Amino acid sequence: MKTCFIGMGSNEASPTLLLAAQKDLLAMFPDAIFSRLMQTVPVGFRSPRLFYNQVARCSTSLSSEEMRERLKQIELAHGRQPGDKTRGIVKIDLDLLSYDSIILKPEDWQRADVKKGITELTDCHPSFPPTCPE
What we know:
The chain has 134 residues and is α+β, with helices and mostly antiparallel strands. Helix content is 33%, strand content 25%.
């Protein structure tokens, strides 16, 4: 089994969509756990809407590509549309941050909210060396 960290975010009906995504992740990955919700300003684009973000940790036998595809399916199921981001709307965003101790999104890994979420889920346990934020 591979350990994965997933970044979760929404700036529209935020807590509701994140809770729905949590249910889907738990259905696929019964051992999934979630950090607390954190409110943040948008990163990488302009929008007056604040985000709710959190981090999930789960185990899987899926490949990293299969994981990404499952996350995309959840996004689409909860109404994510390709043109929304240009209008400042992110209904739901699920990013595979790491897979089997390989950091896939180094820029996201450095964000304060992601570091907080990862620390909350790992307590910087020695068995997760790359997950302990610096």
